[in-house]
Amino acid sequence: MLRRAVLQTFRQGLAQSFFKRYAVSLTETTVTHQPIETSDEAGERTVPTQKTGDESGNTVVVAPPEFRFIYPEFLPDPAMERRNRLREKLERMDMLQRRSVIEIPEFYTGSIMAVTVADANSPNKFARFVGICIQRGGSGLRAWFILRNVVDKQGVEILYEMYCPLIQKIEVLRLERRLDESLLYLRDALPEYSTFPMDMEPERRLNNSVVPINPLKVKLRPRPWLERWERQNLQGVEDLNLPQRFYDRAEKVAKPWEKYDLMLHYRKTIPAEEQEKIFAEVHSQLQQQELKRKLRRRRGSDNEY
Amino acid sequence: MSTLGLLRTLFNPKIVTPNAIQLQSLNRTPFLVGLFFNHDQIRTMSRVKRRTTHPPYWHVLKNNQRTDEKISSDNLRFVQEVIQDKYKNKSPIKGSDLDIEKTEWDPKTKRSGVIARNIGVQHMWEKDGKKVICTVLHVLDNHVIRYVPPEEYAKSVIGAKMFKNRKPLGCLVVGAEASNPERFTRQYCSLFDEVGLLPKKRLARFIVTPNAALPPCTPLTAGHFVIGQAVDVYGKTIDYGFQGVVKRWGFKGGPASHGTTKFHRRGGTIGTGRDKARVWPGQKMPGHMGSERRFNRGLKIVRINMKYNIIYVKGTVPGPTNSIVQIFDTALPRRKFTEAPPHPTYFPPEDGTLPQEDIWDSSLHVFGSPSISV
Question: pTM for the full model?
């Protein structure tokens, strides 16, 4: 709900800027301004950089709108008491430096990933863990994600800090999304939903432009649960089959007015104009890094033959 | 005299922090209290006023008290022109333009400090992969306003108190954050008239030895400090307002349930009925918490960014984000300089070679370098 509202304001911001600046050519801009699907799909991956003309005639570089979903940790923590533009800018520079050394791929909660970390206590000094990403958060250099897997019938979750220099490699084995932003309910689900083989191979995607949404509905174990899942409006869980009193209590406790509280959502997000500025700042370097990696991969595949 | 009184006179050290403007006497000796008395507390600090909302009496009125006068646009433009004329003839001082004698650094030198803004916290990693919390301090546009020689400073109220039984030291008045003169009163702007600088929002005094004196209008930058050195940071702690006894003093309060009636976060008993039969001064109670002057000592500088004038310091400093702090060389005896730092301050090299923009401490992992393999 929140993301849809934010998506719409972001689109409005783009549309306004489109009308403000006289477009150089209509063909350039129509590609990016096709209405994005209101369901939570990521935008086109092959969309080129939008370069619109300013009133003065100078080109203004604007990052593609899907950067918000691919690189969400570049946006700072919205709490106003702790914000400072200069520090955020310096942090972004450090993040780009780290990204130039290691590839941090695009991933979402629900994607299956493998992370290799330098570990002094391992036999080969490296430890590799495969798991499904159940949550991601943090901003800047503090960005983290949690991977979950079931190893020898024991559920294991590991929190990785994305910019920690001990991480050697982050691979996305299956890039997909689920119906919820947080999959913490997998802790109370049947173990087969969290089990992934440790030697899983990276899967090739048929359609490179759209990140698929896995409409899987997970079956939960019988109660007791770690959280009151009936109060959280989960989409990716099968019918909970609870007695009616649980749902009545959930209704009493619910805050249905929050979705109308514009100031609450405003305080929890970075305004669209600022997001545009931030991504415009980092976007050229990120694109350069991606190009270099593509070249390296192509050269590597050429060398194979 | 009572035993308590005797103990108070014997163990009553007055610790004078060298760079503090006000004296603070530390009369609490909890070790001894615990040894001889387990229920009395030395409460000499209870009568001392810890914070005021008004400035000291010798301060001139700073902010312009006038409400928006209805001035015509022509007059406004004229005011702007006058301001520009007054302040435009200022050239930056280079190292060679200084008219001070080239003084030598010795271990007893006290250098100037610097006014900075705490702009937040950034996480960095050491070379073995250990995460370190570093505070990012942005050194504002510091300029020396005036130097007060030791003899003159010892005559002032604060100087007399500070150097009562000690050799007097000089005082450097440093200002930071140049601002529009229209915001301030004429008396406040007159403080900067001698140097011809735009009035600064913040002023600070740093106690220096005469050999570290600086002429007025000298800029102080992040290069004043050395990588790996220890610094003390002075700031005012976060203002929590009126706080209860649990948050303010760490009391445990009462049980949350099991039939407790209205006793969850209260203090409980405040005295015995026998001894002295009254509430002792200094009894811990709810009240204002925070907004106090504190020093965090011995913080190590791990990274300096010369381009943006940023210092990264290992650890945290007093005060909230975006608050002003003062940084100076540490007073801790074992972490002082062994080699000469930039003395009296850092000046960019005269042959035009730009200094290294981003300097890292050897213990830190640089972000652009390859991942750590243990």
Answer: 0.81
